[in-house]
Amino acid sequence: MTKTSSFQAPKGVPDYFPPNSAEFVAVRDGLIRAARLAGYGHIELPIFEDTALFARGVGESTDVVSKEMWTFDDRKGKSYTLRPEGTAGVMRAVIENSLDRGQLPVKLCYAGPFFRYENVQAGRYRQLQQVGVEAIGVDDPALDAEVIAVADTGFRALGLTDYRLELTSLGDDTCRPQYRELLQEFLFKLPLDEETRRRAQINPLRVLDDKRPEVKEMTADAPLMIDHLSESAKAHFDQVLGFLDGMGVPYVVNPRMVRGLDYYTKTTFEFVHDGLGAQSGIGGGGRYDGLMEKLGGQALSGIGFGIGVDRTVLALKAEGKTVTDGSSVDVYGVPLGEVAKQHLVALAAQLRAAGIRTDLAYGGRGLKGAMKGADRSGARFALVLGDREVTEGQIGLKDLRTGEQRSIPLTETVAQVAAALAAE
Ligand code: HAM
Predict the structure, then answer these.
(1) Which of 98, 102, 255, 309 has its CA 20 to 30 A from that of 120?
(2) Residues 6+ away with beta carbon under 8 Å from 413
(3) Residue ranges of the Aminoacyl-transfer RNA synthetases class-II family profile domain (predicted)?
(4) For the chain, which ranges sit under pLDDT 70?
């Protein structure tokens, strides 16, 4: 029989497994904790939704919708898409379940995988993980500042330092259309190539984000949205900055910021990390007044963010920092003989019932191999039991940091281990 070839994960889909998965979980849970502290409740969203939801919500002209969606027909020919982002799905769930008929703002938090058919490179995946929040139904600059501060607090709590918060205002209905025309007028006078000219027609703002030096030079004097905000949009933005100052959240205003999704209005922001190379965005978000109405709901405002968990893990690595979810065990049992094994299996169950994280050496390994297992497990203590100790009613408690071992009465194991761990 010929050997079948082995399998590989799909391109751009990272695996997380121990011990490094502890870091992934710690980052994800740390970011969720920051959202919980500010009153955001959990929402569990479908992994796939009606394709039209994303087309209409995220915008047909965006790369995400036009090039990166994982779209498929179900068995009856209905088109679904693996979620490329979370905001449109949250809006759909809020509208469908009338969450917006209760107290406002509706504050929700989600975590999980998202899917974009991207050109894979370091920090840019096809299955990416985000923690996101959305606050819907109140147009208050203090809420913008809260959302931004939640992300900032999450990053800081993880120990991240080498990043900056960039923000700007993209204006609203009362000033963006006029600014768009002004910008197009400016761009159409430039000697742009065909494709860039087309981009200027569809989404002129994106031309300001062009990385080519010659385009950068040509657009250096382009009019900027931030200088053409309506009075109310400007007042909103100034207040956001004031609240951020009050909370001690540092920021830089970047009037040339361009986001990859179409729904943004007014406050828009990005967290940029210096240690990540080209894929430096560790999180981003903004206000999206108008999105809910566009998706068939009430005319309610909203603001939120999505933080890239994968990239935050990479950012911590770039800073030489580690976080852990404490998933290693406290105690590792080493049975030496069949009778000892009977006892240790039962003891492990008792220790776990007492909330003590416990693992065992399985497969009848000898003392040396089992002790190696104990060291690798990351446990603080080993419980070493031979058949002779069982008859004596004793068990060895070994401190894996100092190497010291003492004998304790078998019947007192759970209490003594708990006391030893508490003494840490
Ligand atoms: P986004 O900027 O497209 O926004 O994505 C948010 C974050 O997800 C990015 O800053 C980045 O860290 C991470 N990310 C995006 N694409 C990839 C990828 N291919 N590989 C690895 N990480 C990636 C949104 O998705 C909006 N829904 C955020 C939002 C919520 N705005 C308002 N509410």
Answers:
(1) 255
(2) 347, 350, 351, 383, 395, 397
(3) 35-335
(4) 1-3
Residue 264 assigned ligand-binding role: yes
- Ligand 1, closest atom to CA 125? 20
pLDDT score, position 2: 58
Ligand 1: residue whose CA is nearest its atom 15: 308
CB of 84 shorter than 6 A to ligand 1: no
Domain assignments of the chain as residue spans, ordered by start: 19-174+230-319, 331-418
What is the arrangement of strands in the sheet containing 381-386, beginning at the earlier edge strand?
Answer: 358-360, 331-336, 381-386, 394-399, 405-409
Fold of 331-418: Rossmann fold (3.40.50)
Residue nearest to atom 6 of ligand 1 (CA): 306
Q: Does pTM surpass 0.85?
A: yes
To test the pocket of ligand 1, the residue of 58, 261, 272 to mutate (highest count of ligand atoms within 8 Å of its CB) is: 261
Of the candidates 212, 238, 241, 207, the residue with the CA atom closest to the CA atom of residue 224: 207
Give all strands of the β-sheet with 70-73 in edge-to-edge order: 48-50, 79-82, 70-73
In eight-state DSSP terms, residue 255 is T
Decide: 85 in ligand 1 pocket, CB within 6 A: yes
Name the superfamily (CATH) of residues 19-174+230-319: Bira Bifunctional Protein; Domain 2 (3.30.930.10)
